[in-house]
Each structure stands twice: as structure tokens, then as C-alpha cells.
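Deliverable D4.2, example record:
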Amino acid sequence: MELKIKNKRVLVTASSAGIGKATAIAFLQEGCKVAICSRNHDNISKALNEIRAMNLAEPEWILCDINKKEDIANTVEVMKKTFGGIDILVNNCGGPPAGYFDNLDDEHWQGAFDQVLLSAVRFTRAVLPDMKKNNWGRIINITSISVKQPIDNLILSNALRSAVVAMAKTLSSEVGKYNITINNIAPGYTLTGRLYELAVERAKTTGESHEHVLASMAANVPLNRLARPDEIASLIVFLASELAGYITGTTIQIDGGVIKSLY
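Output generated by the structure prediction step:
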């Protein structure tokens, strides 16, 4: 299937590991010009080594703490200098800390706001002018199934990721006339470092081993397994393609059937 995105310029944020890295690799496999970013230089180096071993074109890499507006501005500027702009933006971020409402103070809430919502706002704001000028653009936000079915002990993620979805839905109506689509994906339980961390946290409260927690997560999935990051990446690449040009303002869950609701 020809996705018609070869040579498109792609920025995947927080992409040195997990779903972000898998997404960057998937775009490279489609012949796109890709940039990855992370605040951790060692993690970027590991990702680059893995990509080199796959004999793919080497992506541009940028050090970027997505909590800092200066780093976001610099990342977009590097993309303009290197590739001439950004056609496809994938807003990704790590998850904010787990915790119940009574255990989280203003600092926790502000940190989650900066990390999850404001980073997506800032990157989107930075790329939209050129996308409008080019009359083409794709923005895909990586959220979580928590935007459709809140997860216990993840109130920060539940609240702020839902705000990203609301922003995207509203903005999709504003920019559709420029042939710009904005969509969200809602991954379920996926084999990443983040899921391992959540399993460890849950194990502390339940008294179980984290291995048992992960096994229980998989057992609750109708497909009876956890997702691979590359499976999530495949949906993202499709939404960025010409074939998905009539899909906008949507939130698509990719969860193996975990969410039981009709809508």
C-alpha cells in the first residue's frame, strides 16, 4: 500500500524510546525525513545505534526538554534549518507520575500540565503557520486509553491527556480548510518502559510482583497479550498518510479490545 508520504518532514517528540522511537523508525521505513528528540543524550545515542543497525537513513537528533518552551522553539528551528520545515508532527511525551488525588500538590499538577498539555500546545502552535502556508499538514497526538476509560492511580494523566484530546478536536475544525488533519491515538497496555514503571508502582500497593501485575494486564486484554510499540506506530503512520486525508478530529483507541464501551 502506497502511503504517499516519502520525503515528508517528520518530527516525533520524546522519541528516544518506546512508542516514540518505534514511530520514528516506521516513518524512516516509509522514506520520510525524520527528527527525533529527547532531553537525555544517552537515550538518543542508544536509539541512533539501533536505527543504524537497521540500515535505515539516520534521523536528525535534537536535545529537547519538552517542558521548556525554549527547547521546543529550538527544536522547531533546527527542523527548519535542516529540512526546511515540518510536514508531520507527532506529539508524544512520557507519562506524568502516578498518584491519587490526595497525594498530589500544585507542583505535580503544574508539571503534568507542562509535560502533557502545554508541550503539545507549543509544538502545534510552532508548526501550524508553515502547514497553513503549504496547505498540508498532519498532527497526531499520542495519548492513552485513559482518555476514554480513566485508569486508577493515574489522575494526572487522565486529566491532562483528556485536555489534549479536547484541544485537538476543537483545533481540527479551525484548520481543516488548510488541508491539515489533527487526530489522537489512544494506546492500551504496550510493552514500554513506562508500562514497566507503572507495574512496579502498582506492585508496591498490591503486594504482588511486577511480573504478576504485567501478566494480569495482559490477561485483561481480549487478545490476551500486550501491544508492541511498532503496532502503535503503524496506526500513526497511516494517519499521517494521504490515504487518511479525510480523517480528522478523531481519537482512535488501539488497545486489543480493552475498552468495552460503544463510543
